[in-house]
């Protein structure tokens, strides 16, 4: 801590980070131990965070991340979309397919940015806001592969007909971006994704990740 920072704010943010890293919540005692402070301090921090709906406590008294965090998270999407658009435009024009940035939203994959190619006679209509299960479609499968640490070879996911009949997809996960799970991909009307598309999607995913760091 330096003279320019707030110890209380720092502790509150650390509480949110600790709660975000667990699925089952933490007790006041557990938080106090991890923060290295007494229980009274933790009670005050939780009470303040609860007022802003950033934390909630269940019947058993365990603290969990609150819905207010989700509302804050949704405001991040426009910033992420803006950062990703240059790489998505280049990808769409290069391979002649609809390019998209997809992020995890709960148990679903959510398309937050979509760019369609300008020079093709036809392409797949794919809209920002489109949702699908994480275990269906190239975008979700790429995210799950990254989550499981299985993206070494070939580094991207390929699917056909899982979300739309006759459409194929390729997607690569965003790697090394703190706090964001997502992927960059393309969807095209073809029976098989051309060989060069997978590596090109990986390149675009790296460009987006670099822009978000």
UniProtKB/TrEMBL annotation:
Domain of life where this protein originates: Bacteria
UniProt keywords, alphabetically: DNA-binding, Transcription, Transcription regulation
Biological-process GO terms, alphabetical: negative regulation of DNA-templated transcription
IclR-ED domain mapped to chain residues: 68-213
Cleavable signal peptide: none
UniProt cross-references to Gene3D superfamilies, sorted A to Z: 3.30.450.40, Winged helix-like DNA-binding domain superfamily/Winged helix DNA-binding domain
Segments forming a coiled coil: none
Residues of the HTH iclR-type domain: 6-67
InterPro entries: ArsR-like_HTH, GAF-like_dom_sf, HTH_MarR-typ, HTH_MetabolicPath_Reg, Tscrpt_reg_IclR_C, Tscrpt_reg_IclR_N, WH-like_DNA-bd_sf, WH_DNA-bd_sf
GO molecular function, one term: DNA binding
Pfam families, per the entry: HTH_IclR (PF09339), IclR_C (PF01614)
Protein name per the record: Helix-turn-helix domain-containing protein
Organism encoding this protein: Streptomyces mobaraensis
Source lineage: Bacteria, Bacillati, Actinomycetota, Actinomycetes, Kitasatosporales
């Amino acid at each position: 801590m330096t003279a320019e920072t707030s110890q209380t704010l720092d502790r509150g943010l650390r509480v949110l980070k600790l709660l975000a890293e667990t699925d089952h919540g933490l007790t006041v005692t557990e938080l106090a131990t991890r923060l290295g402070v007494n229980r009274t301090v933790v009670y005050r921090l939780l009470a303040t965070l609860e007022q802003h709906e950033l934390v909630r406590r269940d019947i058993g008294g365990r603290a969990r991340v609150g819905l207010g965090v989700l509302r804050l998270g949704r405001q991040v999407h426009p910033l992420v979309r803006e950062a990703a658009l240059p790489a998505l435009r280049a990808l769409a024009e290069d391979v002649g397919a609809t390019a998209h940035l997809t992020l995890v939203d709960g148990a679903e994959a959510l398309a937050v940015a979509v760019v369609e190619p300008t020079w093709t006679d036809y392409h797949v209509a794919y809209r920002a806001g489109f949702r699908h299960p994480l275990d269906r479609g190239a975008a979700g499968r790429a995210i799950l592969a990254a989550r499981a640490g299985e993206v070494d070879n070939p580094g991207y996911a390929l699917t056909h007909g899982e979300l739309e009949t006759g459409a194929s997809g390729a997607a690569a996960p965003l790697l090394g971006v703190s706090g964001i799970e997502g992927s960059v991909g393309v969807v095209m009307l073809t029976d098989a994704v051309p060989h060069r598309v997978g590596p090109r999607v990986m390149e675009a995913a790296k460009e987006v990740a670099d822009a978000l760091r």
